[in-house]
Design a protein that fits this description.
Length: about 240
């Protein structure tokens, strides 16, 4: 047998007895299955990093006391310090522990104005759970670098507003830098939430997750991530609501 013939036989044997490709190398994932997996399999925690050290700390929570315990919790979904948004007209979210017969009123006050920028009646009866106010629907546009206080109030007596149950927080619009805009381009739901939270844009992180929940986009994972963020800023009751869903 010549050398050339022997080499050909060895090569043929190698081809015949080589192991088949591994499942990892031969698996094919359909395009439609990719995005939910990116969110459901997210391993990195989504961490909120407050961007404004020394900024005003004015988050206020509302509650009413029953005979033995706090029986109603009203919380705007906001950090204790000033929270940021990139958006001109962001969506703002709040939590009520149970339905209440009192009407809810939303107000937005610019820090250097006396009168509210806008005040909205949200309904004669307020359902429990998560609520949303869309500033775009009210045709409200935030100016960059300006502090705004926003609040949700349950009105007990329209003639004596000091009796309101109120929760409020501070909001400021800030333009994102070029790096954040680039990273956000093409990011999935969890990726956007992580990028916004890491850069200090609290309201955009919460909105990304909340909008995903409303659309039915991997709801369980989105609720879990939102609950993690809420716990990081001390909103345990709202976080527990998400974890129980």
């Amino acid at each position: 047998m010549g050398v050339r013939t022997a080499l050909l036989m060895v090569m043929a044997g190698t081809m015949l007895f080589s192991a088949p490709p591994s499942a990892e190398t031969r698996s094919v994932v359909s395009p439609g299955a990719v995005k939910p997996l990116l969110l459901a399999q997210t391993k990195k925690p989504v961490v909120y990093r407050p961007p404004l050290r020394g900024a005003p700390t004015r988050r206020v929570g509302g509650a009413t006391r029953g005979d033995r315990e706090w029986d109603l919790i009203l919380s705007v979904l906001a950090p204790e310090e000033t929270g940021l948004t990139t958006r001109t007209s962001p969506d703002l979210y709040w939590y009520l522990s149970k339905a209440d017969s009192r009407p809810a009123v939303f107000a937005l006050i610019r820090d250097d104005w006396i009168e509210p920028v806008v005040e909205l009646n949200l309904g004669a009866r307020t359902p429990g759970g998560m609520g949303k106010v869309a500033l775009a629907d009210a045709k409200v546009r935030l100016e960059p670098g300006v502090l705004y206080e926003w609040s949700i109030a349950l009105v007990t007596d329209s003639e004596a507003r000091s009796k309101d149950v109120v929760s409020s927080a501070i909001l400021m619009r800030r333009e994102p830098n070029a790096e954040l805009r680039r990273d956000l381009d093409g990011a999935d739901l969890a990726g956007k939430a992580a990028l916004y939270a890491g850069a200090g844009y609290w309201y955009d992180a919460i909105d990304a997750l909340s909008a995903g929940i409303d659309r039915g986009a991997d709801v369980a994972a989105a609720r879990s991530i939102r609950a993690d963020l809420l716990e990081q800023v001390g909103l345990d009751d709202a976080a527990n609501f998400d974890r129980a869903r």
